[in-house]
TrEMBL record:
Residues 6-60 form the HTH lacI-type domain. This is LacI family transcriptional regulator. The lineage of its organism: Bacteria, Pseudomonadati, Bacteroidota, Bacteroidia, Marinilabiliales. InterPro entries: HTH_LacI, Lambda_DNA-bd_dom_sf, Peripla_BP/Lac1_sug-bd_dom, Peripla_BP_I. It comes from Labilibaculum antarcticum. SUPFAM superfamilies: lambda repressor-like DNA-binding domains, Periplasmic binding protein-like I.
Length: 340
């Protein structure tokens, strides 16, 4: 037989007070005496009372919940950002609802509908790879729900954002390859409608230009940047009459794919080909050779995103002014791009 769910009415009846008084005591209302608060909380523990989060949100106007939307939580970069968000949220008394879009626009839209129904106090999101229209995010703004974008951000949307300096990260990575003597540097790029990949492309081109090296469109390959995309891109580059002597990859996963094909083709990395990734995923240090990468300060990014959404939740809507935080990238140099 299913156990009866304890309600506010049950606690009120046991203490001979009103359900309204129980609700106020549980929410630490300043007009309730400490004696009543202690008695209510003690009885709630005895009854193993679990509050209805949505009902509580309707009564108080706050759910103490922050929704987080990431493309994939199993990618180390995103899991580290989530950790940073949770640390900041928990410290402020908020819990996090984690969701994954799997780079699906349809799922992204469904998630936002669910978060609105759950009455979250704010949302932190990284855009899906296929997202090109943003009406579902407009819905959050229309409902007055604070929204912060991180990493895969949307510019000029009237919300706060936090990202790494993708231009600088790409520029410095390519400049390092130039300093190692590379002259024909390919780029495994992301989709140009996304702000971060657009900026990495700009950094790549600017670094080549400043080194007086030509920018060749045949050396630039766009994809989703998964491991298999890195393999396919590398195969395409190796078919060229004049092969590249280095590859700058906009993700570590595509860099691994490129490295796999290089090893299968008996191409020695870094002696014959150098490879540089982006994101500093943990696996990059375990490979042989280790893959050089751009670190994005993921936990700090999470802390910052959490702080931005909490500022908006706690602040006045009329005084809100979007903030754009740009973090400094760090080059992590390993054997794939350096002759030791």
């Amino acid at each position: 037989m299913e156990k009866k769910k304890i309600t506010l009415q049950d606690i009120a009846k046991a203490l001979n007070i009103t359900p309204s008084a129980v609700s106020k005591a549980l929410s630490d209302h300043p007009r309730m005496s400490q004696q009543t608060k202690d008695a209510v909380n003690k009885k709630a523990r005895e009854f193993n009372y679990k509050p209805n989060q949505i009902a509580a949100a309707l009564r108080s106007g706050q759910s103490k919940l922050i929704g987080v939307i990431v493309p994939a939580a199993n990618i180390s970069f995103f899991s580290s950002v989530i950790r940073g968000i949770e640390e900041t949220a928990n410290k402020a008394g908020y819990s996090v609802i984690l969701t994954q879009s799997n780079d699906s626009v349809k799922k992204e839209k469904a998630i936002i509908d669910t978060l609105l129904a759950t009455r979250v106090d704010g949302v932190i999101a990284a855009l899906g790879m296929k997202t090109k229209k943003y009406d579902h995010f407009e819905k959050l703004k229309e409902e007055g729900v604070p929204l912060v974008f991180f990493d895969r951000i949307l510019k000029d949307f009237g919300v706060s954002t936090v990202e790494v300096d993708d231009y600088k990260g790409a520029y410095n990575a390519v400049n390092h390859l130039v300093e190692q003597g590379c002259k024909r540097i390919a780029h495994l790029a992301g989709h140009s409608h996304m702000e971060l990949y657009k900026n990495r492309m700009k950094g790549y081109k600017a670094s080549l230009k400043d080194a007086f090296l030509p920018i060749s469109t045949e050396l630039i390959i766009h994809s989703d940047l998964h491991l298999e995309d890195g393999r396919n891109g590398m195969i395409q580059l190796l078919k060229m009459k004049e092969r590249p002597d280095a590859i700058f990859c906009s993700s570590d996963y595509s860099a691994v794919g490129a490295l796999q094909v290089a090893r299968e083709q008996n191409i020695i990395v870094p002696d014959e080909l150098m490879i540089f990734g982006f994101s500093n995923e943990p696996f990059t240090s375990y490979l042989d050779p280790g893959i050089s990468s751009v670190d994005q300060s993921s936990i700090i990014m999470g802390h910052t995103a959490g702080e931005l959404v909490l500022e908006q939740i706690k602040g006045s809507k009329s005084d809100f002014s979007p903030r754009s935080i740009v973090l400094n990238p760090t080059l992590i140099l390993r054997k794939s791009s350096k002759k030791f």
